[in-house]
Amino acid sequence: MEQVIGPFTQIVTFKQTALKGPLQASDMGIVEDAGVRVDSGVIVEVGPFERLVKNKASPQVMEISGSHVLMPGLVDCHTHMVWAGSRAADFERRNSGLSYQEILASGGGILDTVKWVGQATKGNLKEDLHQRILRHQSDGVTTQEIKSGYGLDAENELKMLEVIHEVNREVKVDLIPTFLGAHVCPKGYERADYLDYLLAEVAPKAKLLADRADAFIEAEAFPVHLAKPYLMAMKNLGFDLTLHADQFSSGGAALAILMGAKSADHLEATTSKDIALFGTSNTVAVVLPGASLGLGMAFAPTRALLNAGACLAIASDWNPGSAPNGDLLAQCGILAAHQKLTTAETFSGITFRAAHALGLTDRGRLASQYLFDAIAFPTHDYREILYQQGTLKPDMLWKKGDLLIKSTN
Ligand code: NIG
Ligand code: FE
After folding, report:
1. Angle CA 141–343–323, to nearest 5
2. Could you report the per-residue pLDDT of 105-154, keeping only the tens digit for each?
3. pTM beyond 0.85
4. Ligand 1 pocket, Cβ-based, cut-off 6 angstroms
5. Domains recognised in the chain with CATH numbers
6. Whose CA is nearest to atom 3 of ligand 1?
């Protein structure tokens, strides 16, 4: 059944906005006093509201009252939203002088979360994931990637992926699973042996639940020389690659680009030589301001990546260790101020460019044939959204045409 929804004071369409490089407000494809014609969850047309409702074959109209800005639903292309327990003690330890890597090397950090995920039932993990998805939804997220990586053995890695699959069937928003068996090496293994174990015992089963594979490339996790043969084998198994790259030291981003990975994520320590590589590569540069905030580190060189011509996405990295904040729009408002990003660049990084990092071509823009995944903010000016740094929340959210949030305040 066709529906016309509107009028919206502004619709940020990103109809023909470039996939790579710097952007200005004039690139956003903003239309004013406009509406959307939707059929079976897919956009038929975005155009002047008056014309859409006067159309002879006039369908059902959902009238929007008050000023509103409509934009594509947010795509969070890097999260670790399945976990158990809290790492508040790590936050305090780091703020007293210990580093993230020192905590990990002493057998804590990620390995604590691995212990608690091992103790949790699928039911516990699902319940917590449902709550986090609801919070993300109220912040405007309609598609989120979620990684395993707190299992580190066949039983628990598959348990995490099953949790993502089952919850994906129970919610309307989309969850995209990624296998992160190569997060860190569990106790009792040599790293090369652990990677062999993953390839032989876990990856073939994980492939039934996830099309994407990730690895944490870092001296304390998996250095380039160990990760490279593992990643080549994962590619041969049919996984798309994405990497935790250049968080503390460089090497991972160059490896991601060399391997033709969909994305290289983090990039706080990326060198100017590697920044330049993103300009000529199809690998998406994903920056994670939530991790910089959680660890008290500098932001990734986002401005420089855009200037180099990168396809730049921004994700929350929501996890209990480095990035417990989870509020993608708040992080974007802060990152934009620090890295001098235009609203066009920032919003692109959490809509169609983030969708591209996930290989999704059906969302992230509001134009004919795209899914009607959209959020409306109670304001007349799109600039208010980042300016308010996460405190202005969407009061309406549609997923594949279904209205999931309509708040009256
Ligand atoms: O993206 N650095 C590696 N992995 C995650 C953090 C995981 C954790 O600390 O629990 C990240 O920052
Ligand atoms: Fe991460």
Report:
1. 45
2. 999 999 999 999 999 999 999 999 999 999 999 999 999 999 999 999 99
3. yes
4. 80, 109-110, 113, 216, 244, 247, 291, 317, 319-323
5. 2-72+364-406 (2.30.40.10), 75-357 (3.20.20.140)
6. 216
